[in-house]
């Protein structure tokens, strides 16, 4: 895509904030914003989940199917599911050839990072195993995690923005940014990987849609529509909402360099392909939840 940059375009380009990806350095130990984003997402999600569990009126038969202690114990499970699933998913979906050629790359999380779809699969496995071990209805377990998941998505995308990664396609919109800063260049051995062209800040689009908007939709469903009384509804709406959000943003996001566009197109990306089945899965979950609720009231 070629963009003609006029003086007016250049004047309108927003400066990319020069934020050090390392939040805190303690001698040889460096704590990155990306890691803190995961911690913040998990802890705030845990706090909100505890509030949902405390409110029995939100649940079927006015009783939450799990306790605060269950949520406390689940933190480690979900953290492992997110991290292991996210990394393995990225390798399988986006970077398999590179890892097969250089296996040590599998643990180099700075090379590519994490995959949401892999993290979702890892978290789903963790939820299923934890629910089974603790005799918690699986769909209610899925629902409570789905209700808080947008919190983690929001912080994760903000961290992507700070790192100057997963940038958007070249554009001339007034809010375009050049994703080069001294810290980004230093982190890539003196090279600005996004190049000098102004691009969509697609990380912020995702933070807003997948994070804020989707959280508000699920908040309304749980608090006002009492969707937790129909186990599987919140999970289904989350999966559908994320899928449509991701597909939409993929039209503005630059595809991964090693994959590019798929099937000879200039628009189809791996993110779209992985998100399409989620729509069908989410619709099935919602329909199943409604049918199950109807049988209980029949």
Automatic annotation (TrEMBL):
One of its GO terms (biological process) is lipoprotein biosynthetic process. The chain crosses the membrane at residues 31-49, 74-94, 114-131, 138-159, 207-226, 233-252, 267-287. One of its GO terms (cellular component) is plasma membrane. InterPro entries: Lgt. One of its GO terms (molecular function) is phosphatidylglycerol-prolipoprotein diacylglyceryl transferase activity. Keywords: Cell membrane, Lipoprotein, Membrane, Transferase, Transmembrane, Transmembrane helix. It is found in: Cell membrane. Its EC number is 2.5.1.145. A 1,2-diacyl-sn-glycero-3-phospho-(1'-sn-glycerol) binds at residue 157. Pfam families: LGT. Pathway: Protein modification; lipoprotein biosynthesis (diacylglyceryl transfer). It is an enzyme of class 2 (transferase). It is a multi-pass membrane protein. Belongs to the Lgt family. PANTHER family: PHOSPHATIDYLGLYCEROL--PROLIPOPROTEIN DIACYLGLYCERYL TRANSFERASE (PTHR30589:SF0), PROLIPOPROTEIN DIACYLGLYCERYL TRANSFERASE (PTHR30589). NCBIfam families: lgt. Catalyzes the transfer of the diacylglyceryl group from phosphatidylglycerol to the sulfhydryl group of the N-terminal cysteine of a prolipoprotein, the first step in the formation of mature lipoproteins. This is Phosphatidylglycerol--prolipoprotein diacylglyceryl transferase. It comes from Rhizobium freirei PRF 81.
